[in-house]
Every structure is written in C-alpha cells, then in structure tokens.
C-alpha cells in the first residue's frame, strides 16, 4: 500500500444511486444515494435495523437490490446493461468484482480449521492464482503490519477476539482490494480489545485505503472519517463532515441517535 493522501477525483470510487431493497414487504433501503471517493473513509451510523448491513452487503452484491445501482471503480457491481436494460451479471463476473472488495464482519468469520497464515493465503491462491510462496510472503508482511508477526501458525481459536479481527483485516488486504467494507468490526469485542482493532483501521485509513465503515465508535468517526452518514429507516437523513454532523446534527433522528450512543 502506498502512502498516498486522500484524493478527491471527479468520479467517486463508490457510486450508489437510487438503491432500494425490501424483505417480504418491509422496505429496508428506501432510495439511497452515496458517493465515496478514492482514499476516503465514510462512516455509516444509525440505529439497529436502519439498513446499514444491507447497504454494505449490497455494495458487493451479497444482497441484490430491487432497484438502483452500485458502481465500484467505474464498473456496475452485479449488473450489466444489455439492450438498454439492467441484467444481473454471471457468477464469474460477480466473483471477480467481490474479489476486489474486502469485507470485515463483526464475527471475524475466519476459517477455523486453517492456520492464521493459511487464512491469508487461501483466497489469493485460489481466486487470483498467486503462487503459494508469493502469497505466503505477502501474508507475513500483512501480519506484521497488523501487529501479529510470529502468529502465523496459530489457529483462530488460540487468538483473542482482537487478534482474530486483525487477522480478518489482514486477510481482506491479502486480496489487494480497492475498497474495504467493515460491518461493526469491534462490536463483538471485549472493550479492552477494541482499541487495537481501531488502531489498525486508522493506520489503513492513513495509508489511503478507501473504506466504508459501519460502527458505533463515535470517537473513531470523529477522528478518521471524511464523511459521516446517518441512516434511518433505510434513508440517509444526514451526511457531511464529522465535525459538523457529530457536533451539530440537524436531523431529529441523528440527534436522537447521537444522544443515545454518546
Ligand atoms: P442494521 O445493520 O442497520 O441493523 P440491517 O440491514 O441488518 O440493519 O436490517 C434492516 C432490516 O432488514 C431489519 O429489520 C432486518 O430484520 C431486515 N433484514 C435484513 N436482512 C434480512 C433478510 N435476509 N431477510 C429478511 N429481513 C432482513
Ligand atoms: Mg447491521
């Protein structure tokens, strides 16, 4: 990763327009428009059930939108235009697109039967065809970067939650993603382990990684986010620079949310 500063270019890396999604008649995303530029960190805040996870999952087509489009790196995700209409892409295209979008979950989701090193080596070898030796060398560098040099041979169950989540971040980085999605990455951790994971995320943000982060860590949002986005009832009710949105929220729903978590 380079130390490139956040760069605002005219075309956003992530461009979401008119996104809608319902589950069994319940509207979960109700027309979401969102841009995230290269090198930016956008933090998504909002109450439970507001659609944050669904929005993240739609970005890498783990959920199919009912309407609207997601573009990453100028390419439609999960869809293509054909004959003037939107069609779902084939599984190979979707797999290739997902390979460039890393995702970090609340529950780590490491492969329990694989060593730490093999957790990082698996996807680059299987999906990208990287030679194993090269993938292993890169994995060691990444483990060092997240503060886990020397733990290559451990299994996930032998690590603390904070260590497992740092492995999960390193595993996402092993695919050299153009974008990282985080869904409440510290919510399952004991409080004393939250800081070590946030520190790794701050380091990534500083290195220029583009990140879309769902979290309730307001201090992290204040320090690291370029944009804070409030979601409520499947709509973006407010977004802007953290110093503005977090100190002077204008929408009643974002005020209520902040009052509850601060
Ligand atoms: P958040 O992450 O903000 O808590 P979610 O995106 O997980 O919100 O969920 C928003 C709403 O959509 C919730 O009411 C949830 O129950 C519902 N939901 C999410 N995923 C599914 C699904 N696969 N099937 C049915 N309902 C779902
Ligand atoms: Mg969620």
From TrEMBL:
<dbReference type="InterPro" id="IPR003439">
    <property type="entry name" value="ABC_transporter-like_ATP-bd"/>
</dbReference>
<protein>
    <recommendedName>
        <fullName>ABC-type polar-amino-acid transporter</fullName>
        <ecNumber>7.4.2.1</ecNumber>
    </recommendedName>
</protein>
<dbReference type="GO" id="GO:0016887">
    <property type="term" value="F:ATP hydrolysis activity"/>
</dbReference>
<keyword id="KW-1003">Cell membrane</keyword>
<keyword id="KW-0813">Transport</keyword>
<dbReference type="Pfam" id="PF00005">
    <property type="entry name" value="ABC_tran"/>
</dbReference>
<keyword id="KW-0547">Nucleotide-binding</keyword>
<dbReference type="InterPro" id="IPR003593">
    <property type="entry name" value="AAA+_ATPase"/>
</dbReference>
<dbReference type="InterPro" id="IPR030679">
    <property type="entry name" value="ABC_ATPase_HisP-typ"/>
</dbReference>
<feature type="domain" description="ABC transporter">
    <location>
        <begin position="14"/>
        <end position="258"/>
    </location>
</feature>
<dbReference type="GO" id="GO:0005524">
    <property type="term" value="F:ATP binding"/>
</dbReference>
<keyword id="KW-0067">ATP-binding</keyword>
<keyword id="KW-0472">Membrane</keyword>
<dbReference type="InterPro" id="IPR017871">
    <property type="entry name" value="ABC_transporter-like_CS"/>
</dbReference>
<dbReference type="InterPro" id="IPR027417">
    <property type="entry name" value="P-loop_NTPase"/>
</dbReference>
<dbReference type="InterPro" id="IPR050086">
    <property type="entry name" value="MetN_ABC_transporter-like"/>
</dbReference>
<dbReference type="GO" id="GO:0005886">
    <property type="term" value="C:plasma membrane"/>
</dbReference>
<dbReference type="GO" id="GO:0015426">
    <property type="term" value="F:ATPase-coupled polar amino acid-transporter activity"/>
</dbReference>
């Amino acid at each position: 990763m380079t130390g490139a500063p956040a760069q605002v270019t005219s075309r956003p890396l992530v461009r979401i327009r008119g996104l809608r999604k319902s589950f069994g008649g319940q509207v979960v995303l109700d027309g979401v428009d969102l841009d995230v530029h290269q090198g930016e960190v956008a933090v998504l805040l909002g109450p439970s059930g507001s659609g944050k996870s669904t929005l993240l999952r739609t970005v890498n087509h783990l959920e199919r939108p009912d309407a609207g489009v997601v573009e990453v790196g100028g390419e439609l995700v999960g869809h293509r235009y054909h004959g003037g209409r939107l069609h779902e892409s084939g599984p190979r295209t979707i797999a290739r697109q997902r390979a460039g979008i890393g995702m970090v979950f609340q529950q780590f989701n490491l492969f329990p039967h694989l060593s730490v090193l093999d957790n990082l080596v698996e996807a680059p070898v299987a999906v990208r065809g990287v030679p194993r030796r090269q993938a292993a060398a890169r994995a060691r560098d990444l483990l060092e970067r997240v503060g886990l040099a020397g733990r290559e041979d451990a299994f996930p169950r032998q690590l603390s939650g904070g260590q497992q989540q740092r492995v999960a971040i390193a595993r996402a980085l092993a695919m050299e993603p153009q974008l990282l999605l985080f869904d409440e990455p510290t919510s399952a951790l004991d409080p004393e382990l939250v800081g070590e994971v946030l520190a790794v995320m701050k380091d990534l943000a500083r290195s220029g990684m583009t990140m879309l982060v769902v979290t309730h860590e307001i201090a992290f949002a204040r320090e690291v986010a370029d944009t804070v986005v409030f979601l409520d009832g499947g709509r973006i009710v407010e977004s802007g620079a953290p110093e503005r949105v977090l100190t002077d929220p204008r929408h009643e729903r974002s005020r209520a949310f902040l009052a509850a978590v601060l």
